[in-house]
Design brief:
Layout: H1 2-30, H2 40-66, H3 68-71, H4 78-111, H5 127-156, E1 164-171, E2 174-179, E3 213-214, E4 218-221, E5 226-232, E6 237-241, E7 246-250, E8 256-260, H6 266-273, E9 280-284, E10 296-302, H7 304-313, H8 317-320, H9 330-337
Parallel strand pairs: 1-5, 4-10
Antiparallel strand pairs: 1-2, 2-3, 5-8, 6-7, 6-9, 9-10
Amino acid sequence: MYGFLIAVGVLLLLSIIWMVYRIQSLVSVVKGSNKKIATGSNKVNAILFVLFLLGTGFLMFWYSIKEFDNYELPVASEHGVVTDGLFWVTMAVTGVVFLITHVLLFIFPYKYQYKEDRKATFYPDNNKLEIIWTLVPGVVLAGLVITGWMAWSDITAPAPENAHVVEIMGSQFQWDIRYPGKDNVLGDYDYRLTSATNAHGVDFTDKNAMDDFPSPVVVIPKGEPVLFKIRARDVLHSVFAPHMRLKMDAVPGMPTRFWFVPTKTTAEMREETGNPEFEYEIACTEICGRGHFSMRKIIQVVEPEEYQKWFAEQRSFIQMNPSLAEGIPAEAKELAEN
């Protein structure tokens, strides 16, 4: 510990000495000292700027090409194609601007390094230039924002009437899944009804809740619209399904939604990726506590026929736990048990 403190003290002392030296140099310049202020380090620094530009530029392009397949995941939803298109258009526009500005940023120190026989040009303003570099970015950014807003409006708009509904509820530290029964309508819920046997807080006095059922995984059909109804029980979570290009926050007290159409089954994606163990997944992208890392739920995309077969085999909450039916009308109980 003492060695560390001594090292820090030495670094601070050296920093102070260097700052004092720099202040003295600046004061001499202000006073008009005849002392030469440009040394050999001026040219060295100018060359280093260029070398840094070439080195980091090479590393950026090399890494981007080498790791492209790792960060460009296969897309498996209809709107994901639109999302990817918007991403790459934005990347192209901002990437070109980034390259131009940074090439100029590192070339200028070399080209315009200090020379005693050269005087800087006085160039106070240029109204035409300022109008151009204000209007052009404004128009380009407006185009990007508007196209993004249109895509966002589509995926957050009301889902088609035939959409398969799935409720995803986040809690520390898991995702709980609830499906409606044959009526495709989820029953009401109330956080005050939450218990060890009723994690969703489902209100079983609502007839629409009679046939609701849970599932350990999210099963959805290929080629048909799916509506995720998203909520949180405790803190802020975020539903993220990367291959579907799906991300939506799960906010306590404020239900959200996201609908999409999956385009590839799990089996097809396994064949495409060459990974026999591939699984679609939902991850949480909000730091929700110590167990955040464990918030993972598998998504299985299957053919519509297989989905209908799986759906018909599921048992409702009340069929799995008849005690949940206590206190509800007899006719409703009979309906639930059937």
